[in-house]
Every structure is written in C-alpha cells, then in structure tokens.
Design a protein that fits this description.
Layout (H helix, E strand, L loop, with lengths): L1 H11 L7 E7 L6 E6 L2 H8 L3 E5 L5 E6 L9 E5 L2 E4 L2 E6 L5 E2 L3 H10 L8 H7 L8
Antiparallel strand pairs: 1-2, 1-7, 3-4, 4-7, 5-6, 7-8
Length: 138
Amino acid sequence: MWDMLSEQRELIGEPKGENTIRVLVVEPNKAPYPLDVPNRLDTFQRLVDGLIEAVYFEEPGICGYCNDEGKLIGLEANRRFGGDIICGNLVILGSDDEGGNVSLTDEQIERYTEMFKEPEVISQDEVRSSLSYEIFTF
C-alpha cells in the first residue's frame, strides 16, 4: 500500500497546510484507501484522470467525484453505484452545508471502506448498456 500512496503523493503533490482534506479513493479492482489531499480542483481531476463529475450518496454531507467521460474513453469499470456503473477512480469526500469539500470522519471512512471493500467484476457489455445521453433543448 505504501507504494500506491507514494505514487498518489507524487501525482497530486504533498498535502500542505489547512487546505488539506481526507478522502477515500476507490480504484477498480482494489480495496479503498484513505488519502490526505490538497482541496483543489486540479487534485481531484488528477485523481480521476480527467474532468470530474459529482455523484451523490443518500447520506447527507457525502459526495464523490469520478471521471465525467469514464465510460466514453474506456476507463476500467469500477463499482456499481446508484443504478449506474462508475468507470475509473471514485473519490469519496464530505460536503458542507454550502457545497464545499470537507474531510471524511473516521466513521465515514470505515463505513465507505466496508461498502466498497470488494472489487466488482463488471463486463464491458454492462458498461456499454449503461451508456445514455441526455439532450436538452431550449
């Protein structure tokens, strides 16, 4: 696990100061792990390898980020979530009343580590069938 964390630190830079939050990273075919990261957009974009898309949990004050185009660009299927399939990394974090990012508590890290501890086998056919497009007109 240390090598994985070292690689992540290299990728996002060393967390510094009070603008650091604790998140849970869920990668395809791996157990989740907590990570202290700078609370910046570019950090989350690096963790998901592209533009971020917010995903929402039933628990108030919890959200996640994944790659906005994960399915389209062929990222590896990760976990089923909310009737959909997340492709690529999922970063779980807290959210305050104003929509700002905050650290997960130790209890939340334990709960979501348990929830996502088992990697899932998801076929490319399942991923393709979960693709959908929304067209909005004005």
